[in-house]
Specification:
Length: about 180
């Protein structure tokens, strides 16, 4: 399993995974939104992503570290989990923490498509992401998960995460807040 920049080579595999997720939130995949030069927020539609041209625009946007941000958002690196030439999941590395991310979102968000879960992909993806965080100068990163998501908690703990606290999120969920020293890797 490798962490790679989004690529048009995974067009069909990515969309198949989106279908597999259904209406579930995909942590680490972004909001399918872009900010135009005039500040207008536009959404990439599923119909647009079905086309080669639309998907290419989406991939270019995801890979553009200089892309315009929505107000309140921080710079972010998007990566895809890839195995055997197929899309397995998404991971985002947030370069800074705003108040929301410090409380409940963290530096790293990730998700693995349902058919690829419990195969070690998330653990390996987080391990590789920590190396990238160190390269970005993030010596210590915050990674969070829902309190009842024991699978994600074990992924974080397997990568050296230590539980600082459990907080109540804005929507009432309990969220575990873990710190990991990326520079010690």
């Amino acid at each position: 399993m490798d962490l790679r920049a989004p690529t048009t080579d995974l067009h069909r595999s990515y969309l198949d995974a989106v279908d597999e997720f259904g209406d579930a939130h995909r942590d680490g995949d972004g909001d399918w939104e872009r900010v135009d030069t005039d500040g207008t927020v536009r959404t990439f539609t599923r119909a647009e992503l079905e086309t080669a041209e639309g998907f290419a625009r989406f991939v270019a946007h995801q890979n553009d570290l200089g892309r315009r941000q929505r107000p309140g958002y921080v710079p972010c690196t998007f990566l895809w989990l890839v195995e055997a030439g197929g899309y397995v999941g998404s991971l985002a590395i947030r370069h800074d923490l705003n108040d929301f991310l410090l409380r409940e979102g963290g530096h790293i968000g990730y998700s693995v498509r349902p058919s690829a879960r419990r195969q070690g992909h998330a653990t390996e993806a987080l391990r590789q992401a920590l190396d990238r965080c160190a390269d970005l100068g993030l010596d210590r990163v915050l990674v969070t998960c829902d309190d009842d998501n024991l699978g994600s908690a074990s992924v974080i703990e397997a990568n050296g995460g230590w539980l600082e606290s459990t907080v109540t999120a804005g929507d009432g969920r309990l969220v575990r807040r873990y710190w990991i020293e990326s520079s010690a890797r």
